[in-house]
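Could you please consider the sequence and fold appended to this message?
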Amino acid sequence: MVRDPIASESMPSAEEICAALDDPDCREIIRNLDEPLTASELTERCEIPQSTLYRKLELLTDATLLEESTDIRRDGHHASKYTVSFEEITLVLEDDRSLAVRIERPARTADERLAELWSEVRKET
């Protein structure tokens, strides 16, 4: 399954994806994301210092391996939650001998697409 064509993100390079997956902390984060979690929850589960965790979350989201969404709370203290945004990654050797990446992503519900749009709007304001 492929991400919506409306999505605003560009496809990261094979090098960016491989660099993120080569990092042991990034792999530990992915292993522990069996449900959407905040950075604080991930810090407890992964035993990774929070400052390091934030750098790894940025690396993973830039590589489009994690998705960040905003958990809207009534008290106004919204929190970012992270989820794994792929089911399968394939490296392909192209005809010109360069590496390409193909990422199979889970199907997205209307609620997930709306949450993503809301997150994007919040980033812009």
